[in-house]
Amino acid sequence: MYTKLLGDVRLFELLGQIDEDLARQARERGCRCGGRLHRACYPRKPRGGPVGLSAQYERRLSYCCAEDGCRKRTTPPSVRFLGRKVYLGALVVLVSALRQGATPTRVGVLHELFGVGERTLRRWRQWWQQVFAESTFWRAARGRLLPVVAARELPRGLVERFAGGGVEQACAVLRFVAPITTGSCALAVGGL
Ligand SMILES: [Zn+2]
Q1: How far apart are the first and last CA of the chain?
Q2: How would residue 190 be classed by pLDDT, with cut points 50, 70 and 90?
């Protein structure tokens, strides 16, 4: 199911809209100093998106304070870009999940479908089960998911706690983890 989803341009369009919405909320709140925010996006060359991915994926939305003497960055949470990873967040979640469970998808198949190799898959698993699992965010948020998701079940266990299937499920998971994508903007984006 996740393989089909990752080829669906609608998912990525919807994620783009969610990011625009999160960015608008961040901009309306303004800088912590009270100053106005100006758009100052980061360029991106994301990997793993479907054919026909919008050009809006070439930038990570971000702002700079307009006040002289402040100029601080405010980067809104994102459901598209998971930290500094070159692959889109949806892949880091769903392709990782495909390698888990009772009948994991073979590495060769994932490589053929998404261009994600064994080394990258291993790195992602380490990130989920060590870095993410130990993060302040996850320690605080995991209690909202029942039954509890063990570190070794990440990220598949996390995905499975969200109902709905398809596009809605993927968006909900990415919204849930979005707070970890920024350290400079605290918006309530929880998906539960
Ligand atoms: Zn400021």
Answers
A1: 22
A2: low
Question: Using an 8 Å Cβ cutoff, are 108 and 101 in contact?
Answer: no
Cis bond upstream, residue 50 (ω within 30): no
Instruction: Look at phi and psi of residue 48 and say left if phi exceeds 0, alpha if psi is from -120 to 50, else beta.
Output: left
What global pTM score does this model have? 0.93
Ligand 1: centre distance to CA 158 (Å): 36
- 66 CA distance to ligand 1 middle (Å): 7
Task: Give the rounded distance of the alpha carbon of 72 from its chain centre.
Answer: 23
Strand partners, 63: 39, 74
Burial level of 60, CB count in 10 A (0-12/13-18/19+)? Answer: buried
* Residues 99-140 pLDDT 10s: 998 899 999 999 999 999 999 999 999 999 999 999 999 999
Give the HSE-up count for residue 162: Cα atoms under 13 Å, Cβ half-sphere. 23
